[in-house]
Amino acid sequence: MTRTVLTVDDSRTMRDMLRMALAGAGFNVVEAVDGEHGLEVLSAHRPDVIITDINMPKLDGFGFIEAVRVDDDYRAIPILVLTTESDPAKKDRARRAGATGWIVKPFNPEKLVDAIRRVAA
Amino acid sequence: MDELEAIKVTFFQECEELLADLEGGLLAMQDGNDDGDTVNAVFRAVHSIKGGAGAFGLEPLVRFAHVFETLLDAVRSNEVPATPDLVVTLLRASDVLADHVSSARGLGDVDEAVSASMAAELKACTDPNAAPAPAAAPVVVEAAAAPVIEAAPALIGADDALDDDDLGFDFQPMTITIDEQAADVAAAAGNVWTVSIRPKSDLYRKANETALLLRELARLGPIQATLDASALPPLEFLDAEAAYATWTVRLETDEDENAIREVFEFVDGDCDLEITRGEAVAPDAALAALLAGDAPAPAPAPVVEAFEPAPVVVEAAPEPAPAPVAAAPVVAASAPVAAPTPAAAAKTQQIEVPGPGQSVIRVDPERIDRLIDLVGELVINQAMLAQRVGEYGIAPSSNLAMGLDELEQLTREIQDSVMAIRAQPVKSVFQRMPRLVREVASMTGKQARLVMDGENTEVDKTVIERLADPITHMLRNAIDHGLESPEERKAAGKNPEGVVRLAALHRSGRIVIEVQDDGKGINRERVHSIAVKKGLISPELQLTDEEIDNLIFLPGFSTADKISDVSGRGVGMDVVKRSVQALGGRISITSRPGQGSTFSLSLPLTLAVLDGMVVDVAGETLVVPLAAIVESLRPKPEEVRPLGPVGAVLAVRDSFVPLIDVGLTLGYRDSSPPPTEGVVLLVEGEDGSRAALVADAIHGQRQVVIKSLEQNYQQVDGVAAATILGDGRVALILDVDAVISLRRREPPRPVEPTLIAAE
């Protein structure tokens, strides 16, 4: 069964990079441009894994994760935070919001797929 | 790799947008709009550039963006106040960042010295207490020893290579103890480890899963997992959100402890983890203690399962039947531990509709150009068809004529739609200008603030590409010649900071670009005397203010007292005027002493089509742009008044306008027939001046496809371009402004060469 990954990032470059890496590894990819859009796409596509950026307009990564985690339908979906943040406080905040794991940018496709494998059933 | 190259192209496109956002945000901050959203957007722009650059390994760009981002992060968290001075620094930094992007793209170079000093400046702003000088020039030898202490607390992990770079040393992630252990492990193959895992409920709340942890452990080597469910309360006391299980795993692996710890990286803090080398002695002891303590209930029935070490099998490996508690997150139950804000909950409720998202198609511009050419041909063809049908004397009410009308409507709609595809907001040109203004201002020692208006005004792409040069020049001119120095401005009771306004707007089917400054205005006396001195005009010539202002467009005119960096580039306003005219555009100036000048540039929205009035002049067919025509009329004899030996004016309502015989002005004939025998087109020039053009007859209104005269022949005074009419004949398109000014320069010079349209 093909797994669906939702990528949420305001950067087109980053979305394209993720799509390339994920599609290459056989995942079905759906995309959203910010947290608000992410919640819309979430209900339309029911992804198996979510990868989200932190700094985004409208609804940022923290808010997005929190919103997913309070929804009984989606709160068991693993969420990987994708960020260049070198600030441990931000990673901790993402975890407190309910992030399952994280990927530090820049990532290579193996690192990315590896992280998904670690959190996806 | 093609796909990666394509993404790189996207990245640079995105960089352009982000740099524009960055600049726009900083300018908004400069205007005092420094709310959180703006600062966040500014931060995000730099952050996204850094992220993408990191993905492509564009090191210099990443390094500069990182320093910039760090400062912006401090600004957005209010650690560093966004003072006006700081915003100016940030704007300069954005210019350097733009240079880095261009350089990464292979367009131009970065001035390393400028970049380094800018980075040092940014660092100093971020942490005013840090001594900036020594940090800027690190001594490599020292760096090995010293930074370890100060940098260690800042590290979150060895995988964050960026920071390591920035700190200028190589971080060794292993401690000495681990090194020793690793060596031991390597020596003794087939080592046995005991891993005890006691998940907390937080682990499940974050959608982590014990079963997956066990699966990951199994990738390191064969495992045996034992479940201790003794802490599980009777069902009626069971909290579905809580965690009760403890797993003890016996792992055989050649990997070291680090590899094992890495499996638990994501659940660090969310489970009690004990990793010990050797068989389970300590865990057993702990287990025994547990059992001895409170185990009145059934003795624990350990579940033991073997895992295959081969990674291939991992996906297929049987789920280790986690205790019911492990499934807790799936069970809909009481509120999660960290209660989220009600607002966030409400948000989820609202957004139920699946968003269609924005879909954009990227099309090769050549395809669009081809489409526009074809539509141009279609327009001509449709016009020909209409003409032929008219020649057959078919009644306008007939089915054929009506069908033809519909075809005309459709053709026009297709044309508008196709042109709209190529229309773009002028923003892409405007966004380059703030930097130009900053640079010119600092070069000339002026203080200038750019205000932009109408950036979203749309115009055909072909026109946009050619707007940049004239705008650049007009802005340079406005700052260099228009604005006074801050001292002069203060003395004149003005704000030392001059304002330059750049605006775009649509006006009667054309795009108008205005560059307005609040400087000293044109010094007419000086302009006049320079023009006389350079022999451009005769000294006794009496000129109106407007005419004097327009002298600056004469070839060879320059008012700069000294040749500055800015204006001494060999490009005068005459060149600007000519390049604008070549596009079918016009440029004019209005100026008020002490209050400033306004340059106004008007261009057709598209260089492809034009609505025109087809007229007959001395047997030639001409097209007069409809946008210029106010009305057409047949003059009565009493309305025509002679003026001077050859001239005449026409009384139109309360005013007199000069009568211009087009045939005479263009050299088609030597003497004008009485204006009362012809038709008069009342036209308005770009500067608002009116004239009455005399033609012999009007054929009607038509949309024509513009064919450049310059490209196919040469520029001709009074003629803007040519077109092909429905009957296949070439007709010239009149340049109304040029015709009016040709007439102004009386006595009329013979127009050369006299161009007769090809039959």
Count of domain modules of chain B: 5
Level-2 CATH architecture of chain A: 3-Layer(aba) Sandwich
Contiguous helical run count of chain A:
5
- β content of chain B, as a range? 15-25%
Multimeric state? heterodimer
Helix content of chain B: 40-55%
Give the helix/strand layout.
The complex is a heterodimer of chains A (121) and B (759).
Chain A lengths: L3 E5 L3 H13 L3 E5 L2 H11 L3 E5 L7 H9 L9 E5 L4 H10 L3 E4 L4 H11 L2
Parallel strand pairs in A: 1-2, 1-3, 3-4, 4-5
Helix pairs in contact in A: 2-3
Chain B lengths: L1 H29 L5 H20 L3 H18 L7 H21 L7 H15 L5 H5 L3 H6 L1 H5 L9 H7 L8 H12 L3 E9 L1 H5 L4 H9 L4 E6 L17 E8 L3 H7 L7 E7 L4 H13 L9 E4 L34 H9 L14 H27 L7 H24 E3 L1 H4 L2 H12 L3 E6 L4 E3 H5 L2 H15 L3 H6 L6 E10 L2 E8 L6 H10 L11 H5 L23 H10 L3 E7 L3 E9 L4 E9 L2 E6 L3 E5 L6 E4 L3 E6 L2 E7 H4 L13 E6 L5 E6 L1 E9 L3 H4 L6 E6 L5 E5 L1 H9 L15
Please explain how this structure is put together.
The complex is a heterodimer of chains A (121) and B (759). The longest helix of chain A has 13 residues. Chain A has 5 helices and 5 strands; from the N terminus they run βαβαβαβαβα. In chain A, 45% of the residues lie in helices and 20% in strands. The two termini of chain A are 12 Å apart. The mean pLDDT of chain A is 86. Chain A has a single domain, classed as Response regulator (Rossmann fold), CATH 3.40.50. Helices cover 42% and strands 20% of the residues of chain B. In chain B, the strands form 5 sheets. In chain B, strands 15-19-20-18-17-16 form a 6-stranded mixed beta sheet. In chain B, β9 and β10 form a beta hairpin. In chain B, α1 runs antiparallel to α4 and α2 packs antiparallel against α3. The radius of gyration of chain B is 39 Å and the shape is elongated. The C terminus of chain B is likely disordered. Chains A and B meet through α1, α2, α3, α4 and β5 of A and α1, α2, α12 and α15 of B.
